[in-house]
Every structure is written in structure tokens, then in C-alpha cells.
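Lab notebook, bench 4. The sequencing result for the construct came back, and we need a structural model before the next group meeting so we can plan mutations. Quick request posted to the team channel:

Model the 3D structure of this chain.
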Amino acid sequence: MKKAVWSAIVAVAVLIVAAPASAQNTDTKTVNVTVNVSARAKLTLSASTLTFADADPDTTPSIAAGAINVDAKVRTSPGGASSLTVLADDDLTSGTDTIAISNLTWTASGGGYAAGTMDATTAQTLGSFSGPGNHSGAQTYALANSWSYATGSYTATITYTLTAP
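Done. Here's the predicted structure in C-alpha cell form:
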């Protein structure tokens, strides 16, 4: 009978130990993840106003304005072409007097930016980029100075356009 009791105790112990192991269940679920990334363009300029001081055309044939820091961020496909252009709304005007906007030029540094001459008809390319990225640099405007300009305060508006397809 001792053998039968020990056999029963061992059987119960085996069942107690085995019960939790056999009672474990596993259930697996999946979640599908979708991320939509669209083309995006963000342009930051360090200034919204350019001012050219008056100067003697004999000693200062070109008047420089301070540099504008340009930060163009584009998100596009790896081979996607994006561009940054500038376009003046008109010639520089003061009442009925004008200075041709083509007298306004710029130099550029960093960011893959290029020098150019302002135009009021055709947007001029400041930068062309391939793929996504951040393009930081500076643009410095200069105005050709001339004795032929009539006195006055001349203005024009320049529009920067950053395009990421």
C-alpha cells in the first residue's frame, strides 16, 4: 500500500507540475503599418527687407546690401528635382521714375546656390537640387549705381519660390 500511496503522490505531483505547462496558450496578432510621406518644401529667409544706401557712383559703382541667409528644405523622391527661383514684380519704381530691375544682381555662397541677375518677366534660378535635403547658404544683392538715376525712394517686391515635386 505504501507503494500505491507513493505512486499516487508522484502522479499528483506530475499533474501539478505538468498542468501549468500544458495550460499555456499562445495567440499572435499582427498590425500592418503604413506611413505616408509626401513631397514638402520649406523656405526660410533671414530678412524680408533689402536696403541700399546712397553712394557716389564714381567711387561706388555697385552698392551691396547685407547678405540674406537662405535655408531651403525639400522632401522628394531620391531622384526628384526641386528648384528655388526668384522673380521681381516689376522694375524698381519711385512714382513714375524707374530703375531697370536688371541692375539688381546677386552673388551666392553655399547650399548649391548660383549667382544671377534679377528679372521681372522670367523667374531666375537661385538653386537646383536633386533628391531630398537641406540647402543652406547666403545670397548678397548688389545694385549697379549710376548718375542717371532720378532721386527718389525706389521699391520692388521679390518673390522666392521653392518647388519640390
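The CA atoms of residues 112 and 161 lie 16 Å apart.
Will bring this to the meeting.
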